[in-house]
Design brief:
The protein is an alpha+beta fold. The protein has 24 helices and 25 strands. The strands form six sheets. The protein has a seven-stranded antiparallel sheet, with helices on both faces. Strands 5-6-10-8-9 form a five-stranded antiparallel sheet.
Length: 671
């Protein structure tokens, strides 16, 4: 079959079967594959062809043709993913979506209607010239697309003010595995399918366009930096900042090791003609291999130096917005840091961070060129479990590799921890084995500590083997979603989910998702039974000075009924995109099968399966218990972000049919 010719005739899409193109699109930036390449195994997963559609209709035509011919499709943005989300096979057509990059702005909301292939940095720069911002600044913004952000459920560096990408999506246009082009609308008090597509990593549909909310570009910034004696003391400051209703755009806490390197980067040393010559490339490589060759001893040495030779942990905070508001919020943050024993370091470290915010994008290649490897792992947990998570993952990684960490993407109920690690071995085969061993142990440690496997990088093939340990029966629900939207399984097969022949003992995951009933005042979380009334829940919270802070709603209704209705009376999520309303969930299907979602502050482990409950009027499953995010009864609420757009738009006939198909597929998986 001449694929290029067939695609051209069927859809008018430009296509290539050239070897160079097939090699270029054979992978993303998963470090495991970079190790394979260094070992000489170049692009073993070459696709059959690469296609460059330019409209949603063309994407739909390609999907229909692929379905008829029994070919699979792999959506491709800019290839910057690090989890193995792109790994085609000889029956795959890679869909490079960068031709879908047009955009228009609705000034009334405001929002932007943008193609999935728009490159992040050029799009943001164009919008900022108009005095606006999306507010999404991932470290990969130089080499990532809008569609990639959405598919991976990503987070940007300013998530403390603007939220994650799922908080910015107002509507999505997508092509299902049947070749249907459909638009999904976000709504609060009815079915909302968008959370099922955000984070689905190309397995439930091909994202072609999105409407994203916009904000005024910041007119002012306030910069703060503090040093704390320990990482734990630093994250206590972070916790109190966010629970006090403050929403700094940037809040990053570096542990003593990362702080040490942060200080070195902030000091610009004068050049001297008498300065010693830098080590040669060979010397650097030998030095690096020597340092990383015994990670256990090196990590122990570093731990002994923390808080002593290395100094403490560094907190960098940046508020942005209107001048008066940023100054007021910065003053309040300074008072909190001073009260907790922090030592001010002025504005310098925060300004330096902003100036070099994307430098991390260039650090991976030199490490690989010098014979080592590096990667990152971003996990998250409620504040009450953060210390256990930090210690467990650090210890698990530390047996194999050198470990550093910083905390970013904080919320009132918890925080993300971003581990950076590097290692080496005698040869690339042994390096690959060490890399895989480090990941296995770290993932088990994260799950065992009550955290989530991913906060914003996604799952891909890297974390798929452990997904069942976190989602349990949720893995089967995602498979049912796939069968509803993509009955022939042609969309990115092998990505996101563990193999179907893998062991499927979900009872442990369900037990871990069943948080003890009661109130976690440290994390501002409350876990209640589904049949309890909102009034009874509010009375329980009142005894510890907390509240649901609901507006007009029937307080006699049960928690399960309230969730099924879409949480009427809760604060508008557009007003504060940082605070989530439900952190964890246990819900049962009529068949008796039970979904457990462990309480964590956001996650990026596939679709948000809570969308099968919230606003669904009980059509999919009934809530047995839920962990809610609660607030101080007398505390300050965060500043509201204005957004003038319908909260509950009517569903189109196409969207209603999709809702019905999903509900039927969940309830009757064999039909």
């Amino acid at each position: 079959m001449d694929v290029a010719r067939a695609l051209k005739e069927a859809s008018g899409v430009r296509c290539s079967t050239d070897a160079a193109d097939r090699v270029a699109y054979a992978r993303d930036l998963w470090p495991k594959k970079l190790l394979d390449i260094r070992a000489g195994r170049v692009a073993e997963n070459r696709p059959l062809a690469v296609a460059w559609p330019e409209t949603g209709e063309q994407v739909a035509n390609v999907v229909r043709m692929a379905r008829e011919e029994g070919l699979s499709l792999v959506p491709f943005g800019a290839g910057s993913g690090v989890c193995g989300g792109v790994l085609p096979d000889p029956t795959s057509i890679v869909l490079d979506l960068k031709g879908l990059r047009s955009w228009t702005i609705d000034e009334a909301a405001p929002l932007i209607d943008v193609g999935a292939g728009a490159m992040g940095i050029t799009l943001e720069e164009d919008i900022q010239r108009r005095g606006q911002t999306i507010g999404h600044f991932p470290s990969s913004i130089l080499c990532s697309t809008v569609g990639g952000w959405i598919a991976a459920r990503g987070a940007g560096q300013c998530s403390g003010r603007y939220g994650k990408i799922e908080d910015m999506v107002v509507s999505l246009e997508m092509v299902t595995g049947r070749g249907e082009l459909v638009e999904l609308q976000r709504r609060q008090l009815g079915p909302n399918l968008i959370p099922l597509i955000v984070g689905s990593e190309g397995t439930l549909g091909v994202i072609t366009r999105a409407k994203l909310r916009l904000h005024d570009a910041p007119r002012s910034r306030s910069f703060i930096a503090y040093e704390f004696p320990s990482t734990e003391a630093g994250w206590e400051a972070l916790r109190q900042l966010f629970q006090a209703g403050l929403r700094p755009a940037v809040s990053r806490l570096y542990d003593p090791v990362d702080s040490f390197f942060l200080k070195q980067g902030a000091v610009k040393k004068p050049q001297s003609s008498h300065a010693p010559k830098k080590a040669s490339g060979g010397s650097k490589q030998r030095m690096l291999r020597g340092l990383l060759g015994k990670p256990g001893a090196l990590n122990s040495l570093i731990e002994a130096a923390e808080g002593n030779l290395l100094g403490g942990a560094t907190l960098v905070v940046i508020f942005e917005g209107e001048a008066e508001a940023t100054a007021e919020d910065a003053d309040q943050a300074i008072k909190i840091c001073n009260r907790l024993g922090g030592k001010t370091r002025g504005e310098g470290p925060a300004r330096h961070w902003l100036e070099h915010r994307y430098s991390v994008s260039y650090r991976q290649s030199p490490v690989f060129r010098m014979g080592a490897f590096s990667d990152t792992m971003e996990v998250a947990a409620p504040w009450s479990k953060l210390g256990t998570l930090y210690d467990a993952v650090r210890a698990a990684l530390g047996k194999h590799v050198l470990v550093m960490a910083h905390l970013s993407h904080a919320y009132p109920d918890g925080c993300s921890i971003y581990f950076t690690f590097s290692g080496t071995a005698a040869d690339d085969e042994k390096a690959s084995a060490k890399y895989e061993g480090a990941w296995r142990d770290a993932m088990d440690a994260a799950i065992g500590a009550g955290g989530t496997l991913s906060h914003h990088h996604g799952v891909g093939r890297s974390k798929a083997p452990r997904l069942g340990r976190e989602l349990g029966f949720g893995v089967e629900l995602v498979r049912r979603l796939q069968r509803s939207l993509d009955p022939d399984q042609i969309l990115n097969p092998g990505n996101l989910l563990p193999r179907e022949d893998a062991p499927q003992d979900w009872s442990r995951a369900l037990d871990e998702a069943k948080a003890p009933l009661g109130i976690d005042t440290h994390s501002l979380l409350g876990t209640f039974r589904g049949e309890q009334s909102l009034r009874v829940i509010e009375e329980q919270l009142e005894t510890v000075g907390l509240s649901l802070r609901l507006g007009a709603t029937d307080m006699h209704q049960s928690l399960a009924t309230w969730l099924a209705a879409g949480m009427p009376g809760a604060r508008d999520p557009y007003a504060d995109p940082v605070e989530q309303r439900v952190a964890g969930l246990v819900a049962r299907l009529p068949s008796g099968e039970t979904l457990g979602i462990r309480p964590t502050p956001r996650r990026a482990v596939g679709p948000d399966l809570g969308a099968l409950v919230y606003g669904m009027a009980g059509r999919c499953m009934a809530v047995e218990q839920a962990t809610l995010c609660v607030q101080p009864r007398q505390g300050s609420v965060s500043r509201e972000l204005a957004f003038d757009y319908p909260r509950n738009p009517s569903a189109s006939p196409e969207e209603e049919r999709l809702v019905d198909a999903i509900i039927d597929g969940i309830a009757h998986p064999s039909s």
